[in-house]
Structure formats: structure tokens, C-alpha cells
TrEMBL record:
Record-annotated Hcy-binding domain positions: 2-292
Organism whose genome encodes this protein: Roseibium polysiphoniae
Regions crossing the membrane: none
Keywords recorded for this protein, A-Z: Cobalt, Metal-binding, Methyltransferase, S-adenosyl-L-methionine, Transferase, Zinc
Domain of life: Bacteria
GO MF annotations, alphabetized: betaine-homocysteine S-methyltransferase activity
Protein name (database record): Betaine--homocysteine S-methyltransferase
The protein's Enzyme Commission number: 2.1.1.5
GO terms of biological process kind: methylation
Amino acid sequence: MSKLEEHLAEKGILLADGATGTTLFDMGLQSGDAPELWNVDEPDKIRAMHKGFLDAGADIILTNTFGGNKHRLKLSNDAHRVRELNAAGVDRAREAAAETGREVLIGGSVGPTGELFQPLGALTYEEAVEAFSEQMEALVEAGVDVLWVETMSAAEEMKAASEAAKDKGVPLILTASFDTAGRTMMGLPPKGLNDLRAEFSCTPVAIGSNCGVGASDLLAAILEITEADPEAIVVAKGNCGIPQISGKDLIYSGTPDLMADYARLAVDAGARIIGGCCGTSASHLAAMRGALDSHEKTDRPSVEDVIERIGPLVSPPNKAAESGESPRRNRRRG
Ligand SMILES: [Zn+2]
């Protein structure tokens, strides 16, 4: 049994952390700068981010390595620093974890390459496997407990990531973002993730959803995944309420109380690993910890229950998407 499975068996439900990106922006990271550089240049801030989530009660924290593949890092001319920046990200998380005095899990965050696959773009499947493999090797060597592939959209890219995760010696978690009329930007519905699992070279121990649009949309996706496979270990890492445009920024409407209710609904919907994505701060996470500690799993909610308690769907499924027509593409950050 892996350390992740041991913790799941012991605790039943695990609390993952909150948002890396929006937390670092609050600490002064400028939009357009590679967050991974801060693993080396601003180690105190990265440790402080992790410490905030750990003090709030997180059982799992994710490394600040979401964009740590060579395709993303080449945008800041840092493609040659994959090993260094990923190892530093793991070190910062471990340092913060060591201070807590309790055993916490470290997930090595792996985001998309940011490139489109051929024939839509230039990236080949082999190149994607190679880029993921380079990053994952660095994360595993530095000591992560699990490889955590997130914010995925394209089936091909998920397959490439799972192939890269094969034989790396730690379990794989894979989550997608369903941000476009209930599907990923590339048209995959939540239950499509269950189906894809059989095609993965390395079977993820857990699948699920992160980020996307609103927390309600995310819970709707979780309901579809747990309905398709009630036995699956499912991850829910939703954004903090509903995204709203404020000047040049996207802000999130969720209060700690709302995110506590989101956490209870995620449990009732069948999720076993629950955290927050964009907008979820340490104070939101502390409220989620309290909710998980005091909530007894109850009846499975409907999408209507979710809407009533958390708010409307930002990007509800539409008839065009249901009939197989390609969905409208939304702009979204990782
Ligand atoms: Zn997010």
C-alpha cells in the first residue's frame, strides 16, 4: 500500500490544500512570471504559502510546480531548469511539512504542457511523454508521495501524462477541468474520464476534477464521475465560489462558510480527497477542515441541491454539447 492509500484507509477522507496561483499573486507574484522561479528566488514565501495550508489542517499539499515542464518554462527561458525548479519546489513543501510535526503527504503538481497536440498544434505525443517524464522524474527523486496531474483538458495529453508516470514508483492522481458547458475545453465529459482510465498506461489511484469555473460546476462534475463509478477514489478541488471580473482580475466570491458547505457536499457526492482551487485561501481551508471533521456523510445531493446551496452553474451543459457538436472554447488560466 502506498502512503496515500494508508492515509486514506486511516482517515477516510483527506483534505488537500487551497490555491497556489491566486495565493502567490496575493503575495506579489506578477501575472506572466513563472511561479516556479519562486521555489528558488522567494523560498520564504513558498514555505509560508504551504505553512498557511498546513496550519489550516491540510493532509496533502501540492508543490509549486504546476508549470514546471520544459514547454511552459521555455516562456521565461528556463526550459533547462526543469530538474532544479521541481526539486526546489519539493524541498520547500518538505521544509514546511517538517515544521508541522505531523505526517503530511506531498503531491507533485504537474499541469498541462500548454501546447496543443498535432494536428491542432505542434506537439507530438512522444514529446509530451518526454516532457512529463522529465518533470516527474525530478519530483519523484526529490521525494514526492504522489504525482498529481491536474487541470487537464485533452484526452491525448492525459494519456501522455499517465504513460510518463508509469514505473516512477509513486501513485498517480489525475484531475481534469470541466469548464466548458460541463465538459473540458477539449470536449471530454466527466464520465469520459472514468472511461479513459482503461486506456491509461498507469492507472491513477484517484481521478477527479479541479479548477474550471465555479464550485457548483465542479460538484456537478464530481456527481457524474461518482455516478459512473461509485468505487473510484475521487478528488474534488473546486474554485472558491464563482469567478467574477473585477477590473483586470478574476476574483472569487466564496466565503469560508460557503467553502465549508462545498466540502460537505463533496463528501456527500462521494469525493474522498477534497481541497480548493483558485481563490481558496488558508482561512477558507480552515473552514473546510472544520466541516470535514464534523460532517457525517449523508444523502447524495442532486445538481439542484448543489445550485441551491452553492450558487448557479457558471457554464451549464447545453443541448449543442449534448448532441456532440463541439463546445465553445473559453479562455481560462491554469
Ligand atoms: Zn484553479
